[in-house]
Amino acid sequence: MLMKKTAPIAKREDTILERHGDLREDPFFWMRDRQDPDVLAYLEAENEYTDACMEPARSWRERLYEEMVSRMQEDDVSAPVRRADYVYYTRTEKGKQYSIYCRRRDGGEEEILLDSNALSEGFEYFQVGVAAVSPDQKLLAYSLDTDGSEILTVYVKDLDTGRLLEDRIVNTYYGLAWAADNRTLFYNVLNESRRPYKVFRHVLGTPTSEDVEVYHEEDDRFEVDVDRTRSQAYVFLQIDSQTTSEVRYLDAANPQGQFRVLLPRSQDVEYVAVHHPDCWFVRINDTARTFRLVRMKEGGAEELEEVIAPRSDVTLEELDVYEDHLVVIERELGLTRLRIRKLSTGEEHYVAQPESVYSLGAGESEEFRTSLLRYTYSSLATTQEWYDYDMNTRVKTLVKKQEVPGYCAEEYESKRLFATAPDGTRVPVSVVYRKDRPAGPGPCLLYGYGAYGHSSEPSFGTERISLLDRGFAYAIAHIRGGGDLGKNWHDAGRMKNKVNTFTDFIATAEMLIGSGLAVPEKLAIVGGSAGGLLIGAVLNMRPDLFGAAVAKVPFVDLISTMLDPSLPLTVGEFEEWGNPAEEESYRAMRAYSPYDNVAPRCYPHLLVTAGLNDPRVSYWEPAKWVARLRATKLDGNYLLLHTNLGAGHFGASGRYERLKERAYDYSFICLALGVPVVQRREVGRVKPRSAAKGEAGAVA
To answer: Could you please report the per-residue DSSP string of 446-480?
Structure first.
């Protein structure tokens, strides 16, 4: 496809990198220098080129954006969270980008705690990092990120007077916890490579220069977080690498005391703990990768009493505890389920769900002495729902349902399919489409991630309705490397097994094509961050399978990044990807690293995004990848790079701006696949067809 505007040409420099006797050419290594004026000029030129190429789809983008806004409940209120005699909630107002943080005392008037819209004035990017109310509910500690760097500044507000205290704490991360005295804060800070490595104690009204360091994690593989137990009895530190954990705890009533180790760290043993009076419940994988649940005395005795034994096919994923109930989220066959144990009797039960494919999670809750469990539920066809479940009576009450104007869930069908990987492994695939989608292959968007043990949940998304209503099927590949089928699923797609992630995704695409849901020229794929690495790898391996791809802030310059310990996340991720300083790991990574495996071949249409302030995937990774593709590939298909010059890893921060980004991505997909964004169909006008044998979507 020929472009009216000439694509930017990046300058080339002969940079040869050698490791383990292997020579890698890196002609765009110079892009790492953000002080070089040529770097910003190149990014701006790429943005201009992208805008010019996307001009034919401007009206489509505007139409998609208008549709997405029309489905948004612009004036909305979150599900309220009770804390003593207050309920806390956020709300949004039509036309405003950000949430307003509020509370209401029983029988009282609304109090606005934070108006993010007012606080965001003058900033291109704005995000509240953490908001923590003091135990007596008179003070609010909150942190702000105003450039997307995820380097936060903490402020403290007097909720009685509405005035800010003089305290300012800079260079913090997402850990923030109050002690019981209502005047002591614990927070974590970042080192030069942006690793949260220390925790400090701050007393309100004192200079931050006098803050006391209470913990220093010297092992570069580990990060430290700080929080408060639900019981409010302890401040605790969660210290984690990719494979190993340690918990330390401090009596919240004694903030000047010393943190104690709950269980000493042991390589490749992960655990988390929740506190109940007189004991700790601990989820730990010391005897099996899928975790077991144990109980230990509050004093930290080494004896562990097993409460739930490990099972090979079920992973214990999350753990929480209330006064008389233990709550465990288990994952089996790719789905989560709620397991409830009444502590006083030992009686157990599971909470039934209405659909066979769904997404379930623990909802926000502050209280300890309650029988009500807040949880969330949705599916690819069912909008988000918030429930309060009475763990004694087993009755659930709908607290809030996401309202989507004009949406009718009965018009859509979601199901679970399976692809077969080259080694015979069955890979789950969640799919949704309109029931009246025309028979035969049509446009399809396939999403994948597959890293860090994170699960790609089959949850609802309002934006994708615009594609579904135009005949698209939307699919999620639950590939190895993610946690979709538990801890073993993660292990099967990391380190030396990483290639399984890519072959699983390719097998999923082949299944969608073979089942009649898609054809290569109408199949688009999307992934972000580590999911962007997935996109880059499969495009090198099987570019013929796809018509278009969107790679969001993609982690594509894998080896160069993992050889640079000064960069954020590098050392901490040796246990996910491997350490290329070791030859075996280097050879494995060299075989699939997207940037290093670009070759003179034809690639599908490609849109790539970056964030100039991104601390997780440096802007130069997608920029270098696009430059190498542009200099190497043989086709005339779209190759577009858009860098957000005022944001970081997660793109635009405002809710309307995020919809504009999604509309941009979708308009590119439609342009690349040749699917015109004509007026959307009117829901309910077409009688849904039956899923007869041989029709799209009827695949078992």
So the answer is: EE----TT--------STTHHHHTTT-EEEEE--B
What crossing angle do the helices spanning 37-54 and 655-673 adopt, rounded to 10°? Answer: 60
Q: Six-digit token pair at 598?
A: 């670009």
Number of helices (H) and strands (E) in the chain: give both, helices first.
12, 38
Instruction: Tell me what pLDDT residue 699 has.
Output: 22
Which among 359, 614, 642, 667 is annotated as catalytic? 614
Mean pLDDT of 686-698: 27
Residue 164 burial (CB count, 10 A):
12
Assign 14 a pLDDT band (cuts: 50, 70, 90).
confident
Contact between 459 and 384 under an 8 Å Cβ cutoff? The reply is yes
Within 351-425, strands assigned E span: 359-362, 372-378, 385-390, 395-401, 412-420
688 pLDDT above the threshold of 60: no
For the sheet with 348-350, list strands across it: 315-321, 325-332, 335-342, 348-350
pLDDT at 690: 28
Residue 129 is given by DSSP the state: E
pLDDT band at 684 (very low <50, low <70, confident <90, very high): very low
Distance from C-alpha of 229 to C-alpha of 273, rounded to nearest angstrom: 9
Residues 293 and 327 sit within 8 Å (Cβ to Cβ): no
Q: Note if 649 is an active site residue.
A: yes
Is 416 within 8 Å of 484 (Cβ atoms)?
no
CB-CB neighbours of 478 under 10 Å: 26
Range of the domain at 65: 36-70+549-555+594-678
Instruction: Tell whether 636 is covered by a domain.
Output: yes
Residues 45-60, mean pLDDT to the nearest whole number: 96
CATH number at residue 655: 3.40.50.1820
Indicate the helix (H) or strand (E) that contains 665.
helix 655-673
Q: How many domains does the chain have?
A: 1
User: Is the pLDDT confidence value at 683 over 70?
Assistant: no
The H or E element spanning position 131 is strand 127-133
Beta strands in 159-195 (DSSP E): 164-178, 184-190
Determine which one of 120, 466, 529, 560 is catalytic: 529
The HSE-up count of residue 612 (CA atoms within 13 Å, CB side) is 19
Query: Is there a domain that residue 674 lies in?
Result: yes
pTM: 0.93
Q: 348-370 burial, b for 16+ CB within 10 Å, e for fewer? A: eeebebebebbbbebbebbebeb
311 located within any domain: no
For the segment 258-314, what is each residue's pLDDT rounded down to a tens digit?
A: 999 999 999 999 999 999 998 999 999 999 999 999 999 887 556 899 999 999 999
548 touches 668 (CB < 8 A): yes
Reply yes or no on whether the pLDDT at 692 is more than 60.
no
Give the residue from 429, 445, 587, 511 showing the smallest Cα distance to 19. Answer: 587
Catalytic residue among 275, 276, 642, 649: 649
Whether residue 14 lies in the annotated active site: no
In a domain, 49, yes or no: yes
What's the longest Cα–Cα distance across the chain?
A: 74
Given the structure tokens 């009282």, which residue do they identify?
108
At 679, is the pLDDT very low, low, confident or very high (cuts 50, 70, 90)?
low
Could you tell me which residues are beta bridge partners of residue 249?
236, 260
User: How many other β-carbons are positioned within 10 Å of the β-carbon of residue 693?
Assistant: 6
pLDDT at 439: 86
Instruction: Name the pLDDT band for 1 (thresholds 50, 70, 90).
Output: very low
- Is 529 labeled as catalytic in the residue annotation? yes
Would you say 392 and 382 are in contact if contact means Cβ atoms under 8 Å apart?
A: no
Sign of the torsion formed by the C-alpha atoms of 221, 227, 231 and 234: positive
Q: d(Cα 670, Cα 446) in Å, to the nearest integer?
A: 14
Both tokens of residue 206? 């004192």
